Amino acid sequence: MSDLMRAIEISEPGGPDVLRPCEQPIPTPGAGEVLIKVAYAGVNRPDALQRAGLYRPPASASPLPGLEAAGTIAAVGPNVTDWKEGDAVCALLPGGGYAEYVLTPAAHCLPVPEGMGLREAACLPETFFTVWSNVFDRGGLQAGERFLVHGGSSGIGTTAIQLANALGARVFATAGSAEKCAVCLQLGAEQAVNYREADFVEVLKAEGGANLILDMVGGDYLPRNVKALATEGRLVQIGFLQGPKVELNFAQVMLRRLTITGSTLRPQSDLAKAKIAEALLEKVWPLLEAGRIAPVMDSEFGLEDAAKAHAHMEGGAHIGKIVLKV
């Protein structure tokens, strides 16, 4: 076996064209780590932010992009007892997924759900870790509550709609076209609002307000989200496609006892991510194996076409997840 692997590096901060094929040494797993031979890597918004120089990886992480992958265990480091060579896994990664091999803490791996291929499994970790930790842990969504997710046709959105619906919430979504709204309805949303044609604030107010909103848009959505919340509603912020700064009337937060919170996944501790993995295995993997929920696939690109995959994602026409075949 060669000591080198194919990978995609960020040659300099910039647009999709700064993603370049390269060769790098195959890493060696340390204590508590596994080396995964990657079959497919997921493509996510944070990858594009990292590529643009706006989302620096932790000092201990690979500088290569890629936060999720599926494949087989190629080697295990000291103190790893849960996995062995040849096991099929999908994993949340600290970075480095756009490569033939990648390291990750063993506790951040999950078995490929029974009956699912590696291509689909590569789409699970980043979105399912994010949705579970923000919608259910941080947001506290309960059965029967009204839940609004923005960007309903995105990887995060399609996951959030399905999980919230499967666990008994009333789901509302926003999307930017009739086709995308139709997908949201098929996945379990009871209403899908085309934000180019209607105001989600009015739709939610007519239903009594949202108990929980998951938002990655930011900008002028922040004050509108506050208006769309029910008394004692919660807003969870996970991104800022329209920017993080806005003028907001906090009197409404006080008067209606609202909660505004948010998180980002990558900087959290290894232990925090391991706990999310445990919850997913217990609560969500049975739903995947029963076919009650499934990743929504948009498209597949070869590893060397990572730049094209990023351009496609940033074009905004995709529905669901984009993967790289390694």
UniProtKB/TrEMBL annotation:
Domain of life (superkingdom): Bacteria
Keywords of this entry: NADP, Oxidoreductase
Residue stretches making up the Enoyl reductase (ER) domain: 14-324
InterPro entries named among the record's database cross-references: ADH-like_C, ADH-like_N, ER, GroES-like_sf, NAD(P)-bd_dom_sf, Quinone_OxRdtase_PIG3
Transmembrane feature ranges: none
MF-aspect GO terms: NADPH binding; oxidoreductase activity, acting on NAD(P)H
CDD domains in UniProt: p53_inducible_oxidoreductase
One Pfam family of this chain: ADH_N
Protein name, UniProt field: Putative NAD(P)H quinone oxidoreductase, PIG3 family
